[in-house]
Amino acid sequence: MAYHPNLDPEIRATLETTPFPAFDVANLTAEALDGHRAQINALLAGGPQPDTDVVIENRHVPGPDGEPDVRVRIYRPAGEVVTRPGLYWIHGGGMIIGVPEMDDAMMIDYVERLGIVAVSVDYRLAPEHPHPAPVEDCYAGLVWTAKTAEELGIDPARLAVGGASAGGGLAAATVLLARDRGGPDVAFQLLVCPMLDDRNITPSSHEFAEAVVWDRAANLFGWNALLDGGAGGDDVPAYAAPARAADLSGLPPAFIDVGELEVFRDEDMDYALRLARSGVSTEFHLYPGAFHGFDGMVPDTALSRRAKEARVAALKRALGL
Asked: Which residues contact 38 (CB under 8 A, 6 or more apart)?
């Protein structure tokens, strides 16, 4: 593909010299999803195991009322359990693919560098499980994390919720649910290039019919999978698409970042502005020349390092580290 003229030069050079596993958006159909998911699992299984002292544990915890249990993946510093800040994390994947293990390296890095406890949720995926299943799984996992905070070594007053891409959208929605249902208390929301708006009517949602990762067609597919074909309709709730929330007041402080060259650019900018106008302390970063998920695909570039350090700095500030 021809790269966008605004693409960061260092990122461009890396893309031109480094092969990446292809995610075939042209073959993004419900029938093909099993193959995409299997490809991710195979890549994870074939990759090197992390060299770390971080203790990783999987548990199955109560799901939404009347629904199956939810798997969570817990990351803790080795040694005696002491009270630490917590990060409840939600993985990305367009609402249709992904597992917590994709973010092992990120969670391990946060635990090692910040001394926190991280809990990552394995929510049900669309289209087999449309809204509200994914966000209700995420909320149930958050409720369990807060209730089990003492055992996990988490200070419930310093519990952040975060996620990337679809996970960022689900994180924003989970925080809305926590506000509207009277808990759990959330100290901070870390929204990394979040997927927030099913309507796909912003300039950037039209601009990137071609993209390095996650173009307009893929985004339309993901939203319609989540909403059972109803993306852009009149009755989509804010807990499915947080950009539709009429009231953003009373939410915890937020960090939002997004790349210049991605469909989510404008909806993320708008959400950050609306949060600030609603009295929510908000930090926002727009990374010039960056595509969706750039820091994961080209982690050794200067822009990727800058983005990662900004998130770490935001967590340190928010969690009193």
From this structure: none
Distance CA 19, CA 6 (A): 21
Report the relative pairing of strands 254-261 and 282-291 from DSSP bridges: parallel
Domains identified in the chain, total number: 1
List pLDDT tens digits, range 197-234.
Answer: 999 999 999 999 999 999 999 999 999 999 999 999 99
| Residue 121 covered by a domain | yes
Rounded CA separation 264/169 (Å) = 11
**Nearest CA to 75 among 107, 97, 51, 44?**
107
> Residue 209 sits in which domain range?
9-18+54-318
CATH of the domain at 117: 3.40.50.1820
Residues 214, 299: Cα–Cα separation, whole Å: 18
Evaluate whether residue 27 is within a structural domain: no
- Write out pLDDT tens, residues 149-205: 999 999 999 999 999 999 999 999 999 999 999 999 999 999 999 999 999 999 999
